[in-house]
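Batch manifest, entry 17 of 40.
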Amino acid sequence: MNTVPLAPRIRAGRPTREQAEQRHEELLDCALKMFLDKGYELATIEAIAMAMGMTKRTVYARYPEKSALFKAAVQRAIELYTVPMAALRAAVTDDLETTLTNIARIRIDNVMSPVGLRLQRILSAESYRFPEIFNQAYEQGAKPSIDFLADVLRQHNAAGTTDVADPERAALAFVSLVVSGPTRVVVSGNVIDQAELEERIRFSVRLFLNGVRRR
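Output type: structure tokens
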């Protein structure tokens, strides 16, 4: 009696480096969501592992303490939140008002993105417990944009269109005036109509320009 040979059994094998890294990123995203939903105290590595379909041992092998997993999840959010320098450079035009408006839109859109909102909310909820995450978010997420804006103001100082004695402080003032107000509203769970948001940006940019233009 002839028999049909069975097909060779395919072994799953070890995941590739890319697959392993993707799985790790998914773990960090899941952990951040769990920390947001339940708070740091109530979130557990066991629950995060279960949500990911992982064993506790797998997670503990990489993050032996919950605080280490929390900090890694926040760091990933900061990296995703940071505005690429190429996007800031692309926002620059010969007209300072247009440049400032473009940069304001980029920063506000960034905070209003899903990862931006998650990051701002976790900072509000847990930075008292982990003050270093606030400093990380500023140094990596906000400061590069502020430094870039200060350089833009220096260039306009040199061209004679502005008179800014302290470009760094002026850049910080710009972010506080133009960006922080609308983003606080959105982070708190409220909605700003797009037309209203655009009017706020334009009004605040013009107000800032009135203070820095050379007279």
